[in-house]
Design a protein that fits this description.
The protein has one domain: Roll (SH3 type barrels), CATH 2.30.30. Helix content is 15%, strand content 38%. It is of the alpha+beta class. Strand 1 (7-12) and strand 2 (17-26) form a beta hairpin. It contains 2 helices and 5 strands; from the N terminus they run βββαββα. The chain has helices spanning 47-53, 83-90, and strands at 7-12, 17-26, 29-37, 67-72, 75-80. The protein has a 5-stranded antiparallel sheet with strand order 4-3-2-1-5, with helices on one face.
């Protein structure tokens, strides 16, 4: 499966989950562009469903602003995100305190 260049859900051991464009995979490190941390989600039973369908409760989600680039270490899962789910994730208001 080709992952580079695709918008994906990337889960790591210690840094949590990010949604972004995978620029490069180097061992267990993923280099992402235009990535949002998925701090908390509601409206999907699992990360897999979030990647397939998006969220049905965007007002309950906590996704901070996107960052231009991030390196995520100790990656344990990468799930390609559908266009439907991408639109849903991008539609979640930026969470900020």
């Amino acid at each position: 499966m080709k992952i580079e260049g695709r918008y994906c859900m990337v889960r790591s051991t210690n840094a949590g989950v990010f949604a972004g464009v995978v620029d490069k995979i180097d061992g267990q490190t993923a280099h992402l562009k235009d990535a949002r941390r998925i701090h908390y989600w509601d409206g999907a039973t699992s990360l897999s469903q979030l990647a397939m369908d998006g969220t049905s409760k965007p007002n309950n989600c906590r996704f901070p602003c996107a960052v231009d680039e991030v390196c995520v270490f100790e990656v344990i899962e990468i799930i390609p995100i559908t266009d439907k789910a991408k639109a849903s994730i991008e539609g979640v208001k930026v969470w900020a305190e």
